[in-house]
C-alpha cells in the first residue's frame, strides 16, 4: 500500500514508522476471529443443550428453553411499544439508565481528577496512599454504607455506580497523563499553545489509550454494580427481578435475566470497542 | 574572502536578535546541586546562523530550554529583540531532537503543522494554506494527509521543520535536530535548513554535538565547556555561501576550523588544551 511506498523513499532510516498493514487484511483477520469466536460459542451451547436435556435437575433449564422464555418475557409487548414488554421497558430501562448515568458521572469524575493527579507529581505522591487504600475496598462492599447514607433510591444507586467506576478511570487517566513524554508537552508550551488547547489538543488525546482502557474495565464494573445495587432495597431493575426469581424458585426466569445481562454486557462492550477503534485508529496503526 | 558572509562579526547589543547575559543555572539544592551553566553570555545577530557545540552533558539542552522560556535560569537574563524573555516569547519556534515525540501521532502532518497556528489571526483556510506552503518548502506537499508514523524519521523531522516555518519565527531554535537520522538524510536536511534560512529570513540557533555539522551550517560556532558550561570560544566561520556538502568540507578553511572546534571540545574548555582530563 501507500505506506510501503513512503518507506522505500527514505528507507535507510530507523524511525518508528509503521509497516503497511492494509485495511483489507485487517477485515479478513477480523472475520476470521469472529468465526473462531462464534464457532466456539456454537459448540459450547450445543454441549450445554445436550447436558441440560439429559440432566434431571430443575436448576439447569436448557438453553433453548431460556431463549424461548427470553423472547416471551421481553418481546411480546403491544406493537405501539415496539413489542417490548413491561419487563423490558420497566426493569431493563430502569437498570440501564441508572447504569449509564452512573457510568457517565464516574467516567467524568475519573477523567477530571485523574488528569489533575497526572499533571502534578506532588499531588500524585501525596494522594497515592489514599487512592490505593480507597480503591482496594471492593466497590460492592461499600454498598451498605451508600444505602445507609443516601437511602434506597435511584440517587444512591447512581452514586454507588459512579463511585465504583471512577477508580478504574481515575487511575488509568492519571497514569496515562503522567506518562506523556516531556517533549510533547514542551512542544505545546514552546509554540505558545493556549492551556485549554494543550489540555484538549495534547494531554487528553495522548492519554486517550489509557483512559479508554480504564473506561472499558469501568463499563464491566458498572454492569456488576447496577445489578448488585438492585439486589438490595430495590423495587425494580434487572438485579431486583433476578433475586426475586431466585427467591420464588422461578429458575427459568432467573436464567433468562442472566442471559439478558450477558447480551447487554456484550452489546455495551461492543459499542465501546467500536468507539475506541475509531478514536484510537492512530494508536493501533502507529504501533503496528 | 568573507564578502558573502551575511553577518559582520561585530554588532552592538541594540541590533541583537538574541542577547544572553550572565546566565547561570543550578539544578537542585545543597549537596546534590548540579551547576549546569556558569555565567554564560553571548549575542546572536539578526539573520545569523549560530551553532552551539560542546561535550555531551554540557548543558546544551538546559541552555535551549532557558532560551525558549521553558526554564527560568537561576541567574542572568535573556532578551529577544531587546525584550527580556519571561515565559515563552513570541516569534520563536523550536525543532526538537525527538521528532517522534514532538509530532502528534493522532493528527495528519498538515494538521500537525497547523496545530500551533490557532492563536494567529488567520482563519482556517488561511492556516491550511500556510501549512501547505510550509510542507511544500520542505518537500512534503504531496504527503499532507499522511500521519507522522507513516513517514520515515527524516521526513518526520521535515514535518517538524515545516511546523516551525509555518509559525513564521524570527528566531528558530534547533535542539540536535538531526541526531537520530542517518548520514545521507542528515546532509539533505542540513542543506534544507540553510536554504530555508535565506528564504524565510530567520535567525537560527542550532545546538549539535556534531563538529562538522556545527561548522558547515554556521556563521559562528560557540564552543561550550564541560559542566558547569561556560563559553570557551566563539569561532566565526567566514566560509562563503552557498556551501556544498563535498567541496566546502574539502577546503583548508573548513578542515582548519573543524580541527579548532574539535580540539576545544576535547580539552573540555581547559585553556591548556590537554587531552582527556
TrEMBL record, chain A:
Q: Which UniProt keywords apply?
A: Cell membrane, Membrane, Transmembrane, Transmembrane helix, Transport
Q: What is its main location?
A: membrane
Question: Keyword Transport, does the record have it?
Answer: yes
Q: Where is this region: Disordered?
A: 1-24
The membrane topology term of the UniProt record is: Multi-pass membrane protein
Keyword ATP-binding on this protein? Answer: no
| InterPro entries per record | MetI-like, MetI-like_sf
Where does the sequence pass through the membrane? 34-51, 100-118, 130-152, 158-187, 223-243, 255-272
Name of a matching Pfam family: BPD_transp_1
The record's subcellular locations are:
Cell membrane
Residues forming the ABC transmembrane type-1 domain are 92-276
Report one GO cellular component: plasma membrane
Q: Which GO terms describe its biological process?
A: transmembrane transport
Q: Which PANTHER family does the annotation name?
A: ABC TRANSPORTER PERMEASE PROTEIN MJ0413-RELATED, ALKANE SULFONATE ABC TRANSPORTER-RELATED, MEMBRANE SUBUNIT
Family, according to the entry, reads as follows: Belongs to the binding-protein-dependent transport system permease family.
**What name does this protein carry?**
ABC-type nitrate/sulfonate/bicarbonate transport system, permease component
According to its UniProt entry, this protein's organism is Geodermatophilus ruber
Automatic annotation (TrEMBL), chain B:
Q: Which SMART domains match?
A: AAA (SM00382)
Q: Tell me the keywords, alphabetical order.
A: ATP-binding, Nucleotide-binding, Transport
- Cited InterPro entries: AAA+_ATPase (IPR003593), ABC_transporter-like_ATP-bd (IPR003439), ABC_transporter-like_CS (IPR017871), ABC_transporter_ATP-bind (IPR050166), P-loop_NTPase (IPR027417)
Q: Which GO terms describe its molecular function?
A: ATP binding; ATP hydrolysis activity
One Pfam family of this protein, by short name? ABC_tran
Q: Which SUPFAM superfamilies match?
A: P-loop containing nucleoside triphosphate hydrolases
Among its keywords, does the record have Nucleotide-binding?
yes
The keyword ATP-binding is annotated on this UniProt entry = yes
Please list the residue ranges annotated as the ABC transporter domain: 18-251
Q: Which PANTHER family match?
A: ALIPHATIC SULFONATES IMPORT ATP-BINDING PROTEIN SSUB 2, TAURINE IMPORT ATP-BINDING PROTEIN-RELATED
- UniProt-recorded name of the protein: NitT/TauT family transport system ATP-binding protein
User: Which species does the entry assign this protein to?
Assistant: Geodermatophilus ruber
Q: What lineage is on file?
A: Bacteria, Bacillati, Actinomycetota, Actinomycetes, Geodermatophilales
Amino acid at each position: 500500500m501507500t505506506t510501503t511506498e513512503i518507506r522505500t523513499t527514505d528507507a535507510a532510516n530507523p524511525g518508528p514508522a509503521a509497516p503497511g498493514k492494509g485495511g483489507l487484511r485487517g477485515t479478513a483477520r477480523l472475520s476470521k476471529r469472529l468465526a473462531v469466536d462464534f464457532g466456539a460459542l456454537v459448540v459450547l451451547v450445543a454441549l450445554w443443550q445436550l447436558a441440560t436435556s439429559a440432566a434431571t435437575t430443575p436448576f439447569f433449564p436448557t438453553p433453548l428453553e431460556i431463549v424461548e422464555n427470553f423472547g416471551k418475557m421481553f418481546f411480546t409487548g403491544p406493537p405501539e411499544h415496539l413489542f417490548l414488554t413491561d419487563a423490558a421497558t420497566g426493569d431493563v430501562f430502569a437498570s440501564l439508565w441508572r447504569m449509564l448515568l452512573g457510568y457517565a458521572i464516574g467516567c467524568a469524575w475519573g477523567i477530571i481528577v485523574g488528569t489533575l493527579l497526572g499533571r502534578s507529581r506532588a499531588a500524585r505522591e501525596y494522594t497515592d496512599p489514599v487512592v490505593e487504600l480507597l480503591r482496594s475496598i471492593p466497590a460492592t462492599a461499600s454498598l451498605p454504607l451508600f444505602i445507609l447514607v443516601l437511602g434506597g433510591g435511584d440517587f444512591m444507586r447512581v452514586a454507588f455506580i459512579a463511585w465504583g467506576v471512577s477508580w478504574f478511570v481515575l487511575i488509568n487517566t492519571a497514569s496515562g497523563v503522567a506518562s506523556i513524554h516531556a517533549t510533547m508537552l514542551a512542544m505545546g508550551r514552546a509554540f505558545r499553545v493556549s492551556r485549554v488547547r494543550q489540555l484538549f489538543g495534547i494531554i487528553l488525546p495522548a492519554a486517550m489509550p489509557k483512559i479508554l482502557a480504564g473506561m472499558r474495565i469501568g463499563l464491566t464494573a458498572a454492569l456488576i454494580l447496577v445489578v448488585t445495587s438492585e439486589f438490595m432495597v430495590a423495587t425494580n431493575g434487572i438485579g431486583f427481578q433476578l433475586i426475586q426469581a431466585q427467591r420464588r424458585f422461578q429458575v427459568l426466569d432467573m436464567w433468562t435475566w442472566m442471559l439478558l445481562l450477558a447480551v447487554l454486557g456484550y452489546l455495551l462492550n461492543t459499542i465501546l470497542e467500536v468507539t475506541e477503534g475509531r478514536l484510537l485508529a492512530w494508536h493501533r496503526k502507529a504501533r503496528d | 574572502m568573507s564578502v558573502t558572509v551575511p553577518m559582520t562579526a561585530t554588532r552592538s547589543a541594540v541590533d541583537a536578535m538574541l542577547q544572553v547575559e550572565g546566565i547561570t543555572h543550578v539544578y537542585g539544592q545543597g549537596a546534590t546541586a548540579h551547576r549546569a551553566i556558569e555565567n554564560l553570555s553571548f549575542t546572536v545577530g539578526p539573520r545569523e546562523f549560530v551553532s552551539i557545540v560542546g561535550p555531551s552533558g554540557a548543558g546544551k539542552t538546559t541552555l535551549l530550554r532557558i532560551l525558549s522560556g521553558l526554564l527560568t535560569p537561576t541567574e542572568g537574563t535573556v532578551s529577544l529583540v531587546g525584550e527580556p524573555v519571561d515565559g515563552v516569547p513570541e516569534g520563536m519556534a523550536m525543532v526538537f531532537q525527538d521528532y517522534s515525540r514532538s509530532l502528534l501521532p493522532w493528527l495528519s502532518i498538515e494538521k500537525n503543522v497547523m496545530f500551533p497556528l490557532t492563536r494567529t489571526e488567520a482563519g482556517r483556510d488561511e492556516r491550511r494554506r500556510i501549512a501547505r506552503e510550509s510542507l511544500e518548502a520542505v518537500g512534503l506537499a504531496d504527503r499532507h494527509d499522511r500521519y507522522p508514523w507513516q513517514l520515515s524519521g527524516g521526513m518526520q523531522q521535515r514535518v517538524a521543520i515545516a511546523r516551525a516555518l509555518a509559525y513564521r519565527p524570527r528566531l528558530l531554535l534547533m535542539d540536535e535536530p538531526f541526531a537520530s537520522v542517518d548520514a545521507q538524510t542528515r546532509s539533505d536536511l542540513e542543506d534544507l535548513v540553510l536554504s530555508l534560512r535565506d528564504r524565510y529570513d530567520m535567525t537560527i540557533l542550532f545546538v549539535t554535538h556534531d563538529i562538522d555539522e556545527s561548522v558547515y551550517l554556521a556563521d559562528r560556532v560557540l564552543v561550550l565547556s564541560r559542566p558547569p558550561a561556560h563559553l570557551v570560544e566563539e569561532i566565526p566561520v567566514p566560509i562563503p555561501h552557498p556551501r556544498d556538502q563535498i567541496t566546502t568540507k574539502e577546503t583548508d578553511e573548513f578542515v582548519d576550523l573543524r580541527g579548532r572546534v574539535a580540539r576545544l571540545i576535547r580539552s573540555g574548555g581547559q585553556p591548556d588544551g590537554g587531552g582527556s582530563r
